[in-house]
Amino acid sequence: MRYLVVLAALLHLSLAACASELVMPLWPEGVPGAKAIGAETVADGKTGNVSVPTLTMYGPAVDKANGAAVIICPGGGYSRLSTEREGTHYAAWLGTLGVTSFVLKYRLAQFGHPAPLQDVLRAVRLVRSQAGKLGLNPAQIGVMGSSAGAHLAASAGTLFDHPLGRTGAALDAVSARPDFMMLMYPVITMAGPAAHAGSRMALLGGAPTLDAVHLMSMEQQVSPATPPTLLVHTQADKTVPVENSILFYQALTRAGVPAEMYLFEQGGHGMGMRSGLGTASAWPRRAEEWLREQLARLPDR
Question: Mind listing the pLDDT tens digit for each residue in 234-279?
Fold first, then answer.
């Protein structure tokens, strides 16, 4: 309980003090497949109708940054982005650990596949290419996501070399492979009873091909090159079944990829960093321990 009180205080202070330092356009040369879809919407901490993807950087809320960076993919079923609960709240928490965060505003259902994949891979390439200028370690760049945002983060960790993630830009030459992944109650599979129908519809449309379903079922795309992964999910999640995390963990284990998975009893879908959810509310402590372990294993700059 004391940990949760301290964390809440840190988050409050961080959100007040950790103002956005930099908004970076993902595609200054022009958004691939650009189209007019009307004005972007922002309401109740959620963003929708995204046509101009960006990265918003949040610096660490400690005296000395550790050089690590995390690209955060908010959830929202590929129909909207939970930018506050699953974006800036995570950035504030990561800031207390010395990590620089980048909240990704990615394209949604109005564009569909492969636009979100292109956006997240461009985000990794952009941060890595600018690491020296931003004081970051290019070998310590991870991704974090929640729900459909975790599906997108997992896409980065499995499809980082896929041709659909390239646009012919010079930045394609930079590696898009994340160095680690943190997946919160992730959408993983696009097939079977565990699939989240809303995310599948928004990303792939109403009648996706079998090839598209296979490609975007992340448990089918894991390889030994997939980065170390942390999974957090709950039994109480009635929106995205816990089987999604289990499927991904099993695939990681078969491929020999280091992984940890924390499955809690309480905490419904979209729990974010809320208190009052039993042991599930202490997931940031488990995640902090895991993250410190991963960063210690990765190369120093």
Answer: 999 999 999 999 999 999 999 999 999 999 998 888 788 888 888 9
Beta strands in 59-122 (DSSP E): 69-73, 100-105
Residue 276 belongs to some domain of the structure: yes
Residues 6+ apart with CB under 8 A from 142: 68, 69, 70, 71, 178, 179, 180, 181, 182, 227, 294
pTM for the structure as a whole: 0.93
pLDDT digits (tens, 9 = 90+) for 60-91: 976 779 999 999 999 999 999 999 999 999 99
Instruction: Name the residue range of residue 63's domain.
Output: 2-28+40-297
- Residue 50: which CATH number? 3.40.50.1820
Residue keyed to tokens 């974006």: 87
Q: What angle do CA 151, 184, 238 make, to 5 degrees?
A: 90
DSSP 1: -
Count: domains in the chain: 1
Task: Say how far apart CA 216 and CA 70 lie, in whole Å.
Answer: 22
For residue 249, being part of any structural domain is answered with yes
